[in-house]
Specification:
This protein is α/β, with parallel strands linked by helices and about 290 residues long. The protein has two domains: about 10-105 and about 250-275, 3-Layer(aba) Sandwich (Rossmann fold); about 110-245, 3-Layer(aba) Sandwich (Rossmann fold), CATH 3.40.50. It is built from ten helices and twelve strands. A six-stranded mixed beta sheet has the order 2-1-3-5-6-4. The chain has a six-stranded parallel beta sheet with strand order 9-8-7-10-11-12, with helices on both faces. Helix 1 (about 20-35) crosses helix 10 (about 265-275), helix 5 crosses helix 6 and helix 9 crosses helix 10 (about 265-275). The longest helix has 15 residues, at about 245-260. The two termini are about 30 Å apart. About 40% of the residues are buried.
Length: about 290
């Protein structure tokens, strides 16, 4: 990839940056397509973030920003306009400057989850769903499911305040959506989403009682540290269709590209082009 004076910048803003994967997905795609843009990791601590976000968009070659932890919630108050999904989620992970010079933001974590399950043949409109975990990613998934026409949504989180706050935002924007709070029972649910970190570490308890899963349920995971988490292994053994955590990542990128006004693509092409391993800097033959 050649970066020149015409290259447009997409900031990947968060802290710390060591685990950032977006540059290794976007940049190979940009190179393959001849798109004169680059995603650059920018480690920005929370205290500097409000000022830095606005300063970044004063650069003449800024195109947009990908927002990750710990800034997704903070971003909402810094924008001139937010999309409905970001408003419901209470967080934002993409920002661009519109043609009137206003900062506009939206949330795409949940969009990736929903795009993945619909491409696997599931219909969200009129369905029922359980989302376990009402933090940032759980709120985003709930918001995108509601946007897609879900009929009934059950929310569960040990943090009752977070659960109630998400429910309030959903009622405000989707008053027709039936809500059930405080149950993690997957029985009778068409879609079950684990939006908790349970499954990242060996010995983690399962987020739901898997014996209550019906074979007809679709089970989605957000944990990306391993493809088949204990939850997905149990769901698979019960005949459930399922979605791995990295599907959510790759499925949301075409939506990001649309948001930034760039040529879009498919998750399959992004997976094919992604470069997650760093090249060995040593000459061949050296151990």
């Amino acid at each position: 990839m050649i970066i020149s004076g015409t290259t447009r910048l997409i900031a990947h803003l968060g802290y710390p940056t060591g685990s950032f994967k977006a540059p290794m997905i976007y940049n190979p795609y940009f190179t393959d397509r001849g798109i004169d843009a680059v995603v650059v990791p920018m480690g920005c601590r929370a205290v500097e973030y409000p000022d830095f976000l606005k300063l970044f968009f004063r650069l003449s070659n800024s195109l947009g920003a990908l927002i990750t932890m710990p800034h997704k919630v903070t971003t909402i108050a810094l924008l001139d306009e937010i999309g409905t999904t970001a408003a419901v989620a209470g967080a934002c992970n993409a920002v661009r400057l519109d043609d009137r010079g206003r900062l506009v933001g939206e949330m795409f974590d949940g969009e990736g989850f929903v795009r993945g399950l619909t491409r696997k043949g599931r219909v969200v409109a009129g369905a029922t769903a359980l989302v376990v975990g009402c933090g940032g990613v759980g709120s985003a998934i709930a918001a995108s499911l509601a946007r897609a026409g879900l009929a009934r949504l059950t929310l569960f989180d040990p943090d009752a305040a977070a659960m109630e706050a998400l429910a309030g935002r959903l009622r405000r924007h989707y008053p027709e959506l039936a809500l059930v709070l405080g149950s993690a029972d997957p029985a009778g649910q068409d879609i079950v989403a684990n939006a908790t970190p349970l499954g990242m570490k060996p010995g983690d308890p399962l987020p739901i009682d898997v014996t209550r899963l019906a074979p007809e349920s679709f089970v989605g995971e957000v944990v990306m540290s391993q493809e088949i988490t204990p939850l997905l292994a149990e769901a698979r053994s019960r005949g459930c269709a399922y979605q791995v955590g990295t599907d959510m990542l790759f499925e949301q990128i075409p939506a990001y590209l649309d948001f930034f006004g760039l040529p879009t693509t498919t998750p399959e092409e992004l997976r094919r082009l992604a470069r997650f391993s760093k090249p060995d800097p040593r000459p061949p033959g050296l151990a």
